[in-house]
Amino acid sequence: MDAFVFVFGGAFMTATPLLLAALGELTVEKSGVLNLSVEGMMALAAAIAFMATYNTGSHLLGFAAGAVSAMILSVVFATLVLFFMANQVAAGLATGILGLGLSALLARSYEAFTLAPLSKLDVPLLSDIPILGPILFHQDLVVYLTIGIGVGLIAFFYRTRAGLILRVVGENPHIAHSLGFSVMKIRFRAILFGGFMAGLAGAYASTVLTPVWSQGMIVGRGWIAVALVVFGTWRPLRVMMGAYFFGAALLGELAVQSGGIAISSQLMTCMPYVLTIIVLAVVSRDAVRIKLNAPVSLGENYRPIG
Amino acid sequence: MNVLAKTLTGMALSIVLSSSALAAEKLKIGFIVPNPIGEVGWDHELDRGRQAVAEHFGDKAEIQAVDSVGEGPDSTRVMNKMAAQGADVIFLGSFGHMNDGLKLARRHPDIAVIHAGGYLQHDNFATYAVRHYEGAYLAGMAAGYATESGTIGIIAAFPLPEVVGIMNSYVLGAQSVNPNLGDVKVVWMNSWFDPAKNKASAESLVSQGADVIFSLFPGTPSAVAAAEEMGVYVTVTLSDNTRFAPTRHLAAIQVDFRPIYIAKVQEVMDGKFTGNDTFAGIKDDAVGVAGLSPDLADEQREAILAKQEEIRSGAFHPFQGPITDREGKVVVAAGTSLDDGAIKGMNFLVGGIDTTLPN
């Protein structure tokens, strides 16, 4: 039973950095911009957040510093694609590499430093429910906040005017422009929000999930976040479920291995990726709905005329 | 003006002269390390080796060190640069430097290249490795003493022969002191570096009852820190990790590249360098047990240290028969022990380890 709690309770923590970054990237992509610098933004934020928390002892300051650093990087990206009309894929990759390099450089002298872990919040009564209590009500604050942000984004996209406008910009910037909305401004804000979220994700990874600094500690989680957006077919709820499922599958692999079940470990290691792709592909197999949700102008720069 | 020009020329000339005079005496030694140098682990130990060479040879050596050089184009670039600057000796710190290093050695027969962990040698391309398994037996003894649940959990990088050998020796050590030891649980990371996965693996093993963890080539101290957090004992390869688990660090398999490095550089200075293989262990002070927990009883600690001396003297060999594998087949017959070739190519798991190896 402990293994059960480990997998399904731990999945929330494992999923949180993926989900934070994926929700940010989802918003950026919904506005029609493909930002492939998530990995780099997360890495930079992880370094900055770690240094801030290490020197101040405050996780809050760490998260704030991480978010700001990733937002600065996202402004670099926004400048390239919105003002200089650079190719989004190339600009994203370049900005991402810049972030990875800065991350390694800035936190060089912090290699293998450790932080105190963030305490878990217990909800009175609810935490004492057998099985469900430790799974659902024994998490850190950021886990709950992330789910809150996800729910908030669903409400934003499908229940508010601003969310509708953002989606219109992603579908067809020409129409949005002719209706009098500033495509640039809206896309800029979306990119900034994406940076903010990637920053929180990086900060969570380095100060909460594994509070030991090592260069390159993000190890591809930013790319998984980008993939989750695509396989979640640009729907926030799918992305949330996909992230949680992926987290559970990652830990499930470890639980199965430590249980001594005789399956080749190489096979097991690729299982979380394969399973997540299969599940999300099956859930989202309706091609028409994918087309409805995929932002039509994704990856295309928009040049306002007149 | 004229005076100034003359002075400058004179200064420049004297600098050139003095530096070339120095270069003639000094042995130029380059160190290439694959990752950033942390407080513990592989790169940290390689760097301690470099420091020892600098201290030991003092003015006789001119040292150049570059870290965070992974395999691939980066390493070729750094190697060629060192060669172009007239390096006499180059230490390569990663298995992945093997092919590029071998090419370098073939192109520059006058450079002594010394490579960690590889299996190919050449006239001027030597290799070295450490008998981690000897220390692993001792750390395993500590684990066997400390476990109360009888369940030990191992987090291992890749199912490679060297890793399997360390795991086997560790488990044999644990079994030798604890007859009630249950099946040892294993999580293969299939990665040299993933801090989050390393930590989660430790949590997974603990959730299934392990109360001693062995982090085998983790590339990160995150499982060690996690063990401290969860209140279980931890043993670890390469370096004493006590600082990451001040109350829960049970034992470490401490490696020490310093004697190997100093011996190799001395060989080059004496003109005796050849492309041979060094496989150094407790006897050579290249490996040993370190960071033993104060929670171990005095007689337990003494037993561990006594075993270390037995291995040093050759009275005991971690892989001496009889040893049976998982299926109960005798893999090392009574009265014999494995030779170095069999140890380096180990492809079986001893009985009592609950995992599988790829075919």
Task: Profile the largest sheet of chain B.
Answer: 7 strands, mixed
- Mean model confidence by pLDDT of chain A: 90
Q: Percent of residues of chain B in beta strands?
A: 15-25%
Provide the domain count of chain A.
1
CATH topology of chain A: ABC transporter involved in vitamin B12 uptake, BtuC
Provide key terms for this protein:
heterodimer, A: 306 residues, mainly alpha, ABC transporter involved in vitamin B12 uptake, BtuC, two-stranded antiparallel ribbon, B: 359 residues, alpha/beta, six-stranded parallel sheet, 11 helices, 42% helix, globular
Describe this entry's structure for a reader.
The complex is a heterodimer of chains A (306) and B (359). By secondary structure, chain A is mostly helical. Chain A has a single domain, classed as ABC transporter involved in vitamin B12 uptake, BtuC, CATH 1.10.3470. Helix content of chain A is 72%, strand content 1%. Chain A is built from 13 helices and 2 strands. A two-stranded antiparallel sheet of chain A has the order 1-2. Chain A starts with a helix and ends in a 13-residue tail after the last helix. With 359 residues, chain B is an alpha/beta fold. Chain B is built from 11 helices and 15 strands. Chain B has helices at 2-25, 42-57, 73-84, 98-107, 132-146, 161-177, 195-207, 222-230, 258-269, 298-313, 340-344, and strands at 27-32, 61-66, 89-92, 112-116, 125-130, 152-156, 184-188, 212-216, 233-238, 249-255, 277-280, 287-290, 323-324, 330-332, 353-354. Chain B has a 7-stranded mixed sheet, sandwiched between helices. Chain B has a 6-stranded parallel sheet with strand order 2-1-3-4-5-11, with helices on both faces. In chain B, strands 13-14 form a two-stranded antiparallel sheet. In chain B, a hairpin with a 5-residue loop joins strand 13 and strand 14. In chain B, helix 2 crosses helix 9 (258-269) and helix 5 runs parallel beside helix 6 (161-177).
